[in-house]
Amino acid sequence: MTAYKGTIGILTGGGDVPGLNPAIRAITVRALREGFKVIGIRRGWAGLVDMIPDPQADNSNNYRVLSEDLVNRAGRTGGTFLHTSRTRPSHLPLSNLPSHLRDKYQDDINDVTADVLKNIEFLGIDTLIPIGGDDTLSYGLRLHQEGVKVVAIPKTMDNDVPGTDYCIGFSTCVTRTIEMTHSLRTCAGSHERFLVLEVFGRYAGFSALLPAMAGASDRCIIPEYPFAIEKLVELLSQDRHKHPSNYSVVLISEGATMLHQNNMSFEGDEQDQYGHKKLGGIGDQVARELKELSPQFNDGRRVNVVNQRLGYLVRGGDPDAIDSIVPMAFGNLALDLVLQGISGRLVSLRNGCYDNVPIDVVTGRKKIVDVHKYYNAERLRPRYESFSRQPLFIMTSDV
Fold this sequence. Notes:
alpha/beta
């Protein structure tokens, strides 16, 4: 029997994506066979906040010991069986404090990191592997700075974690966006309309740019470049007139803004613990403007719009091939680092090769589209001159 080598904790934070369960499976299977015990923290950082460090307490809602049987069943599916949240222990609202901490913290916003550290010690975790985007991983960096051994894995539909060309979930997002756009073409073509699709992308436009490059849409609007609505109407009208079925398609990142628009479009004023309001509505605004302005470019006749927010449709369901393979590799890369006694790293895929970088890269810069290099601002579409020496997803490298 393999000698016990320590305990590894795994958690998933932020939005769900296809590929999380394959990553959990890869880590767990390899770790168990190497002699580690593996604990799955439930609901992201919330599990480490809500936990009561008492052997007699019922913490079944906060963590579970993982086995090969458990992760093998889940590993072929989408989402995360460990569940997830947007909890930020360093900025926890008073209303989110668990009952056993309410006598200890009294501020409107509280830093409960001291209790998170106690709970990590209570569980006997030697290395923590958080899987998430730059928000989730920024708190992983905080724990690394507090002395916790952390090896991080990047995940996000937007593909905007710095230091890596690829984040778990992005390929499935692009695949689904292309599929759904092509499916909705039949509706737009049947009614001779504009097709407006709002996709993910708060600060980075990769999830609109890549499908557009693959032929899913005529135009794309990204957060990195505020656009003139009149120009978009003109271009889509030209595209529509050229198309045999009299329709045209635009993909719009949720974080995009029109010229002279002060802020992104939000569903409301409520913020999550990372300071983000829930995005949504730019597609609706563009659809209204397209309909209103279309007579100027259509001999005085109004063009109607098919308007759809893809949202959770592109992050639900099973992972595609890439989001089954990359999480497996990322999980094993993380275990390689653990076995070498290395921590404070982010596993990555850069220039076509698996690698790792310092975890502090996640807060060091923003990863966004290089507009000058990859976006034709005059034509509102992708720009690409050569594919030589480019990464798999063309414009996703930040080096």
